[in-house]
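ESCALATION

Customer reports they have been waiting on this structure for their group meeting. Please prioritize. Original submission:
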Amino acid sequence: MRLGYFLSCEEYTPAELLTQARQAADAGFEGLWISDHYHPWLGAQGQSPFVWSMIGAVSQVCDLPITTAVTCPTVRIHPAVIAQAAATSAVLTGGRFTLGVGTGEALNEHITGQVWPGAPVRREMLVEAVEIMRALWTGEVVSHRGDHYTVDHARLYTIPDTPPPVYVSGFGPESIALAADIGDGYINTTPDADAVEAFRAGGGAGKVAAAGMKGCWAATDDQALAIAHRLWPTEGLPGELSQVLPDPEHFEQAVEIVSPEAMKMPHGPDPMRTSRPSTPTAGPGSTSCTSPRSARTTASSSTCSPARSSGRGTEMPDIVDLLVEQHERVRVQFIHLLAATGQQKVELFAGLVEMLQRHEKAEQQIVHTALPDVGEILAEEREADLAIAELIALGVDYPSFDGKLADLHSAVLAHAAHEEEQEFPRLRAEIPAERLVEMAQQVRADQSAVS
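Update from on-call: job pushed to the front of the queue and completed.
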């Protein structure tokens, strides 16, 4: 296994990144990753220099191999242009450049006003983009008419002796399978042994698997945690939020669900603990790229309560865990919906309504029967039901829909906060733990039967 250092363009000025590259080489790191962003994740991160300018500059201050982690060669920049940038980078580094690619994030790719496609289309675009780039790296004239791109009699004159390897990023099963199929290697921003295993089983055996992690060093655990939560709570966002939210402002709204207490990545004054990957990518042909710096870390999000013991030697969620988990899903769905347009907005709204109805039914089965005084909860639920009915009647294209949706969002958040702060603690205090687990099992069985 080789160990490298991650240059975070979201956080540092060009001069700071060059200093870090020199220091990484002096410290004995064996490679560099560098992020490719148009926007930072959050305004607090504060930077976003152009990655291709930075690669050229870094190549002149150290001789470490450089990998983009990762570039999206599909929307913001045409793959023929990325092919030229990668070829020049390979020449500048003496062949020590690897092009890490992925299907991208709306955060960086929406800026030219093009429609941000769904994941299946983005994967198709990535396959075609990689084909175009590899064709251009031969130095031959390329003309291409594809489903997504056109190249008209293009030829690269500055090319390396050997084309740069292409490492493909992927998180879900389809993307990992794609990486195994078209990639010279696999790249992931977290050390995920299961993903590496899936990559190798899907055809990536013998290829390099690269994983990244971040750690935060500070004089105390509390200081490190505060820095981590301020700068990298985005790493704790669930689902596909990181791919679909378009602006730093949206991410700043979304990370409100990530609490400091939920931070699970290494942080604190112990360098060994701070820089140790929590899930190694075991096996041959693996590399790890870490960013053990004094003001940065990743975050992992979970606002649900700890799982309770079922009394049978296994950890099972109780009804409070389950209801809070459903609150979390509703919050995330609202974030998606508030940023959506067109058909996606219609689908997300339908999904939100289903979530709210299922959650209300679960509460009626449990909370309403277990606690003697639920008048306030019932009143809040009736108001929400009326608001949902009004939104359904209006439709997502009606001018007043967004305003009424925002009102519903505020009401649902207030309702969830009331339950989490008052009613759920009462359940835990008044009902035996074993019964709470049984309630959760009952609700899950009922909802599975409906599904």
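Sent to customer with the following note: The chain has 17 helices and 13 strands.
Escalation resolved.
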